Each structure stands twice: as structure tokens, then as C-alpha cells.
Amino acid sequence: MAGAEQRMKKLLPWASYLIFIPLMAFATISCGLLSLLCSLWDKSGAQQHAIAQFWAKIMLAVSLSPMKVVNPQNLRLSTAAVFACNHLSYMDTPALFGTLPFQFRILANHYLFRYPFIGWHLDRSGQVPIDQSSMRSQVAGLMRGVATLKSGMPIVIFPDGSRSSDGHVRQFMAGAAFMAIKAQVPVVPLALIGTYELLPMHTYHLAPRPLMLVACEPIPTVGMTTKDADKVTARMLEAIATEYYAHSAMQRPTEMPPSQAKIPSSNL
Predict the structure, then answer these.
(1) Are the C-beta atoms of residues 236 and 207 closer than 8 Å to each other?
(2) DSSP strand E in 134-177: where?
(3) Residue 252 CB-density burial (10 A; 0-12 exposed, 13-18 middle, 19+ buried)
(4) Distance CA 86, CA 169 (A)
(5) Kind and range of the H or E run holding 46
(6) CB atoms within 10 A of CB 255
(7) Exposed e or buried b per residue across 190-211, where buried means at least 16 C-beta atoms within 10 angstroms of its C-beta
(8) What residue ranges do the domains of the chain occupy?
(9) Nearest 5°: CA angle at 231, between 177 and 82?
(10) Coil, strand or helix: which one is 135?
(11) What is the architecture of the domain spanning 2-247?
(12) In the beta sheet, which residues pair with residue 83?
């Protein structure tokens, strides 16, 4: 059995380079072009979002990584909300697009908008860029997210601001709580498990495995002010960390390591 597992591990990089990655690239280019075409008339973004969901499901299927959703009732809200998820891998985005059952917008690093196909889709489908090079530009991006929430559209954000280099949940910035409080909508913490092992940072081949998304209890923000952002952020971090370490093979550290984002400060 051990010998078979070792042979499988040796074959996985070749399967990624020869099968998984070419199929993913083809799906990305094809869906990106189709989304760009739909953007000529799809002002609501609904058709482009449906294409993104289709692309994400292909990515998960090709990676041989089925998703299980825990507490799906927490995803069915009657109002817009900020859905805040831990960030582990480049596979997090397809994992969320392929799983969340509603139309939403993402708050994404501005550099992603420069990439062909993916960047074209992000720009034309109304996703929200955020520039972490300065606090001023970061707040400007968050305010664009607030406007999106007030229009009735949910926002998905990675509050740690950057992928985790070691698979551990890292401290969160207060941007998700800031937007939710400004728009007076709830925050729904999402714990994503398995994508780090599927595609860790600085690796270029996949290690297929089952994935899990745990939707935690929504955190209401009605009546709060931005002074409460740190308190909401702490609740969000605790909810995600609790579920993440309960379902992953990693041992929870005594203290959450700091964010690896360029501007880890939570002061807004």
C-alpha cells in the first residue's frame, strides 16, 4: 500500500503538467472569452457570473476535488452580506465560485485585473479591485465594496489579504467588518478546508483531495459603528479558525500568525 501511494505521488506532478493544467487553461480561456462576449449585453452580470460558476465547477472536476458544504442554510440569507473566507490557495476562488449558490462580487487584488482572460472577466463582470499598496487606496477599494453591498449584491472577501504560506489561518484585517458595518449587513464567516493541500503556495501541480466549506453563523452588524470593526473581526477569525482546525489535519497554534498582506494593519 505504501509503495502504491509513493508511485501515485510521483505521478501526480506529471498528471498536472500533462492533463490537469492544460485542461484548466483551456477552460479558463474558453470561459473568459465567452464571458467577455456576454459582457457586451449582460449589464447585470448574471450571465457572466453563471459562466464563472461553470468555469469553477470545471476546475474542481478537473482537479478531482469534490466539495462538501457544511451548514448550507447559513448561505441562504434574505439580504446582501459580506462572506469572509480564509485564503489558502489559488484554488480558493474556483472553490467559492463553484460552490456558493448565488450571484456575488469579489474584492480582489488589483493586479489580478491585469491578467488575460481572468482579468478581463473580473473587470467586465463588475468585480471590485483593491490596491494594498497604501492605506488610502485600500480604503477606496473598501468603499467601492460598500457601494456594491448597498446595491443589494453580496461581497466575497479574503480578510487575511493574502494566501497562507503554511496552511494556517492568519490574523484578519478589518476590511470585511468595515464594509459590513458601513452597509449595515451581516458578515458570514466561511471556513475553507483542503485547498492548501490541493495547491500550496509556490507549487505548480495539484494533489487531488476532498474539499470542505463550512458556513458559520452570520454575525449581525445593525446598529454598529466602524469602532466595532475590530470586535467583529475577532469574532469572524475565531469562528473560521474553530471550524478550520476542527476539520483539517493541522494543529491549531496558540496564537494566530500575522497576515502576510502588504498592509496587515486593521486600523481603518
Answers:
(1) no
(2) 155-157
(3) middle
(4) 7
(5) helix 46-62
(6) 7
(7) bbbbbbbbbbbeeeeebbbeeb
(8) 2-247
(9) 20
(10) helix
(11) 3-Layer(aba) Sandwich (3.40)
(12) 156, 188
Integer distance in angstroms from the first to the last C-alpha of the chain? 53
The rounded distance, in Å, linking the Cα atoms of 169 and 243 is: 11
Strands 211-215 and 67-70, bridge-based pairing = parallel
State the pTM of this model. 0.90
Q: How many CA within 13 A on the CB side of residue 98?
A: 23
Q: Which helix (H) or strand (E) holds 235?
A: helix 229-247
The average pLDDT across 4-19 equals 76
pLDDT in tens, 206-229: 999 999 999 999 999 999 999 999
- Angular region, 64: left φ>0, alpha ψ -120 to 50, beta rest: left
Is residue 186 a contact partner of residue 180, using CB atoms and an 8 Å limit? Answer: yes
Confidence of residue 108 (pLDDT cuts 50, 70, 90): confident
CB 158 within 8 A of CB 195: no
| C-alpha to C-alpha distance for 126 and 138, rounded to whole angstroms | 18
